[in-house]
């Protein structure tokens, strides 16, 4: 079949290497290489200029990419229609989110009502889950990024102020509130680039002209919480994202830090789809903040 050969070429271009393409497709590197070579041999074309380990896409390869883009979208739309026509008695629903804190109650309620629908959850930072949505790997994305894109419909579903999170024995744990200036004497744990929590943290520090004593970058919220427990430092995070029962202490910041918003996105072209409308109705019943549709 032609599709696996095209997929090997397409992902190699998108990911930037055969290694990354193999990881994305879940196959071996030699398989990716063999499929690209098979595609080139079948049509007598050259899709890459090969310079040692470097691959540069040719004009023919570049011209092919938009067609594969459309083919990929068509396959995704077919998949969605077929899953959506199962009357919610079967099929699957895929959601990408920065964390479970804002949508987990909705997922649990949706699961109770439609137990035969398979639910898949992809966790990543704000940019990663939006990429998953536009690449048709998920049906809904929950992200802190506010994106102006006419192809997307978004709803604001949460609003949280940043709080200082410390372990119980920390000297600041007994305070009702603190000023950000206290971070000048602290090691601050930061999320990775692309995280809206990091963006909000850096904006707050810049606004107050506060420079922490030291910075440690850690690539996930859960790892940061564990690092706080181990005494490696403290962190700023939205109040609603501090895990309950985690033996961590949240301290309010005065004056207040900027709010971090959480948004739910889906493709505008699928707004009327049964899976989308049903999940949105369940969401409206399970979150405390009224869902606010935001114009892009």
TrEMBL record:
It comes from the Bacteria. This is LysR substrate-binding domain-containing protein.
């Amino acid at each position: 079949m032609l599709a696996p050969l095209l997929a090997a070429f397409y992902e190699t271009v998108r990911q930037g290497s055969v290694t990354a393409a193999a990881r994305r497709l879940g196959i071996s590197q030699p398989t990716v290489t063999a499929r690209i070579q098979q595609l080139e041999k079948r049509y007598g074309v050259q899709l890459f200029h090969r310079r040692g380990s470097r691959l540069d896409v040719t004009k023919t390869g570049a011209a092919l990419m938009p067609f594969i883009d459309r083919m990929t979208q068509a396959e995704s739309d077919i998949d969605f229609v077929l899953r959506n026509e199962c009357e919610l008695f079967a099929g699957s629903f895929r959601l990408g989110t920065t964390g479970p804190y804002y949508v987990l109650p909705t997922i649990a309620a949706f699961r109770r009502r439609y137990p035969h629908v398979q639910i898949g959850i992809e966790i990543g930072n704000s940019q990663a889950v939006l990429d998953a949505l536009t690449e048709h790997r998920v049906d809904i994305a929950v992200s802190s990024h506010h994106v102006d894109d006419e192809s997307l419909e978004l709803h604001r579903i949460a609003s949280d102020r940043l709080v200082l999170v410390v372990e119980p024995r920390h000297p600041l744990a007994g305070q009702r509130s603190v000023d950000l200036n206290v971070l000048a004497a602290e090691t601050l744990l930061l999320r990775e680039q692309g995280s809206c929590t990091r963006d909000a943290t850096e904006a707050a520090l810049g606004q107050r002209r506060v420079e922490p004593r030291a910075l440690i970058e850690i690539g996930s919220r859960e790892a940061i919480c564990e690092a706080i427990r181990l005494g490696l430092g403290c962190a700023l995070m939205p109040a609603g994202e501090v895990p309950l029962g985690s033996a961590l202490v949240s301290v309010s910041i005065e004056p207040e830090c900027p709010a971090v918003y959480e948004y739910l996105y889906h493709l505008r072209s699928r707004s009327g789809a049964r899976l989308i409308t049903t999940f949105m109705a369940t969401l409206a019943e399970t979150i405390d903040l009224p869902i606010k549709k935001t114009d892009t």
